[in-house]
Design brief:
single chain; about 375 residues; alpha/beta; Rossmann fold; six-stranded parallel beta sheet; two-stranded antiparallel sheet; about 10% strand
């Protein structure tokens, strides 16, 4: 296990009815901008509940943040912040809304072209507005981390950035807010959380036993409760899914270990070009990534096979094959296709994705930095 620092200032308010606690979390004299996606937040009553909890504060609204939040849309929110002298942001929605709010928090105070925040992966950020979140869709973990991914539509680029200034001050996690979600979004949440864990866990052995067991526990919880969370309005299942999704990317399981993130890098390009749901790109890429890179990941794949899927018989290669097959089958069991062909992408589209990886500097991916554009091409070909 490597040396590491761990810092996470986000306060979590977990459980049914916790939106009422907003009154204690948002400064009493704040001018608040609520940011959300479509009209579901209004139709389900969540927006009214949030506004009621904010009481007599001056409150503005910004609607229309997309599932893959765009720079173009978010800059309109930045203008609203400045015009109305807003000093506190509140995201109400899933990871895309929270990601978008992080960009608004950064861009509203940024001196210069806000696109620089994205092109420098957040390194040039020196200040940001305070913000909180009310999570309605468990998936990305954005409610308890300092990362975000934004799409610049004009350039067909989906770019990640992060900075310690972008941790939410607080996040409200009420599992009952997931009851109105369609199965597709819940399935995406299970897959997203699963792959977040895998990107930090399935690299190579580093004697980080606590992180390994923690990661394996999260994966087993998703396998056990994920299908129930998708198919039933069961509080226990939804609560466990929501908490796993948060823990999968709040920094704890990744502390002191190297990360991969090659699956995400390729997935972002697929979303940017073909507008495939983020989680569904991950379900396509991960099994192929494990297959193509099985030698570099051999020891961890064997550990994953035994501890997560209870595969103990057969040769090493047979156990690895079975573990990858069960991973793919798990995603498919959630009605999440794992082949590019299911999304209308054929071999002719692969070169364009590889070219975009090059344009965005994604030429040395993975825990060893050895996932070259050619390896990415092999992964995409194995995903067809």
């Amino acid at each position: 296990m490597q040396n590491f620092d761990f810092y996470n200032p986000t306060r979590i308010l977990f459980g049914e009815g916790r939106i009422a606690d907003l009154d204690k979390q948002v400064p009493a004299n704040a001018r608040v901008l609520i940011l959300f996606g479509g009209e579901s937040a209004r139709k389900t009553g969540t927006l009214a509940e949030v506004r009621a909890a904010l009481g007599s504060r001056t409150v503005f609204e910004f609607a229309g943040i997309e599932p893959n939040p765009s720079y173009e849309t978010l800059m309109r929110a930045v203008s609203q912040v400045k015009e109305n002298q807003v000093d506190f942001l509140l995201a109400v929605g899933g990871g895309s809304v929270i990601d978008g709010t992080k960009f608004v928090a950064a861009a509203a105070l940024f001196e210069g072209d806000p696109r620089e925040i994205l092109f420098t992966f957040g390194r040039t950020l020196r200040q940001a507005m305070p913000f909180g979140s009310v999570l309605t869709l468990p998936a990305t973990g954005s409610e308890m981390n300092d990362g975000s991914v934004i799409t610049i539509k004009a350039q067909g680029a989906k770019l990640p950035f992060m900075n310690p200034l972008l941790y939410p001050v607080f996040s409200v996690l009420d599992p009952t807010k997931t009851y109105t979600l369609p199965q597709r979004q819940l399935a995406n949440g299970v897959v997203d959380a699963f792959v977040h864990v895998m990107e930090q866990y399935l690299t190579y052995a580093t004697d980080a036993h606590v992180q390994d067991r923690f990661s394996e526990g999260l994966l087993l919880t998703l396998i056990e409760y994920g299908p129930d969370a998708i198919n039933n309005k069961d509080y226990t299942a939804r609560a466990n899914l929501m908490w796993v999704a948060t823990l999968a990317l709040n920094g704890l399981i990744g502390a002191g270990v190297l990360h991969d993130w090659a699956t995400h890098a390729i997935g972002h390009e697929l979303t940017a070009k073909y507008d495939i749901d983020h989680a569904r790109t991950l379900a396509v890429v991960l099994p192929a990534m494990l297959q193509v890179r099985r030698e570099a990941k051999r020891s961890k794949l064997l550990q994953y096979a035994e501890r997560v899927w209870n595969i103990r018989e057969g040769s090493e290669d047979e156990r690895i094959d079975t573990a990858i097959a069960r991973t793919r089958a798990f995603f498919e069991s959630l009605d999440v296709p794992t082949r590019l062909s299911a999304y209308g992408v054929d071999a002719d589209g692969i070169s364009a994705i590889v070219d975009q990886l090059k344009v965005h500097g994604m030429v040395a991916l993975g825990e060893h930095g050895d996932v070259t554009p050619e390896i990415s091409r092999q992964v995409l070909e194995a995903s067809l």
